[in-house]
């Protein structure tokens, strides 16, 4: 089945989806449409947002729905008001030419009296959030006696939002003869439990395995200390001009803080989280869809209801605990055949979490360095030319006679001058700024001299694989130079180096393991890490000195013994 016209869907449905530009079914639609049309079993479908789930269940159901009956036949439950509105809008579009079919959305945060009034229209399809559906059941405003299909959309999300009791009540209140379709992006214990208790011998389908969907997304991570995270974020934004992105945070407070920081720094950004009123959330989403703002800072839950296909970047300001959430977030970019970039800011002590994400998702996530001022200006210049070559602005008119005689300038001189005007503020901002990568790994020295910076930049280039030969034999010279140190840190000599294929991430992991005694609630602070050819140096908070000394010698790296000593 490669075209919708090869399905058995009715001409009214085919006409409606044809107008929406749907030609071929998506992967999940290929699997669910024939199943729902011909099978009476329940269904568990593992699929992420953006895979075409709504059409996957609603098209075959619309095909079979009885339009002569005015009783509710399909109930769709979903986690948020936004998703509820989106799904009901989609179903209304698909049933545009089915004049007797009515769909009503019911959700919290809006007048229940108005919704009860709209139920008087006798819709056959209800799309609702669990809480509001329960309220309406309690007010005896919903008659579920003729329900034929129950869809649980984003079941994992509904459960993680605490709708467990509501879901179980609704599952019990609806007729036993119904067919239940459970859609979920992840299959955790809770989802398994619900399906075991309430679904009968369900057929299972799964689409878009994690890697399959993500091939066109490049994954990067940047290690940065907590205190420099916002500045690092600013640099990532500046180094990726013309972006349209979502920045994911863990908490509502963090989301607001990051958005405030960006707005204060002049970016067209805003926050989306659960502390905002519904009207405020609607306004923010509208601004983002219309591209009045091009950066949205959001919590995972709040971003769920947002349906945008053209994101260029996803930035993980904070890592999620669940690797699947990482995949979910990243999958917001790279849609509709476009390429996408996912960038994660990682605190030094999060190396283990990053490893877990890498191994659970099998995604290749490459370490990159926080862009320097120089990198940023280069990227901005590139961004100006990209815009020049791809966009044509015609906002205001002006008379060519206003252009003076410029024949004394060459083309390059003119372009140079115009770029100077255009990028002046940015260039001035970064002119005397320290590079963050070095700051994060070195000990927050404020009077870090220009020479040191140049030297560290060299060392970074070497890390990147350039000038490998040049640094042979220089290790001792470099490490013996006096450096200002943080008094709270102890500097260790470590017996492994580049020749042992040791990476910074490995060192972070080793330190985290050595300092985690299972008792301390707090993680050790990690300072400078310097990996040289044959050995390395790293800094760890003083109070963890003994843990490092005693634990490292009993650990192995790629089969090799490890040894750490306090450096002179
Ligand atoms: P969903 O996963 O249901 O949120 O759908 C994601 C997006 O894909 C929505 O914008 C749909 O309108 C669109 N879509 C769904 N099915 C198809 C299809 N077969 N062809 C083109 N676009 C589709």
UniProtKB/TrEMBL annotation:
Gene3D superfamilies: 3.30.70.330, P-loop containing nucleotide triphosphate hydrolases (3.40.50.300). GO terms for cellular component: cytosol. It comes from the Bacteria. A motif (Q motif) lies at residues 2-30. The keyword Hydrolase applies. PROSITE patterns: DEAD_ATP_HELICASE (PS00039), HELICASE_ATP_BIND_1 (PS51192), HELICASE_CTER (PS51194), Q_MOTIF (PS51195). Keywords: ATP-binding, Helicase, Hydrolase, Nucleotide-binding. The keyword Nucleotide-binding applies. GO terms for molecular function: ATP binding; hydrolase activity; nucleic acid binding; RNA helicase activity. Residues 232-377 form the Helicase C-terminal domain. SMART domains: DEXDc (SM00487), HELICc (SM00490). Residues 2-30 form the DEAD-box RNA helicase Q domain. Residues 34-205 form the Helicase ATP-binding domain. It holds the Pfam family DEAD. Belongs to the DEAD box helicase family. This is ATP-dependent helicase. It comes from Chryseobacterium pennae.
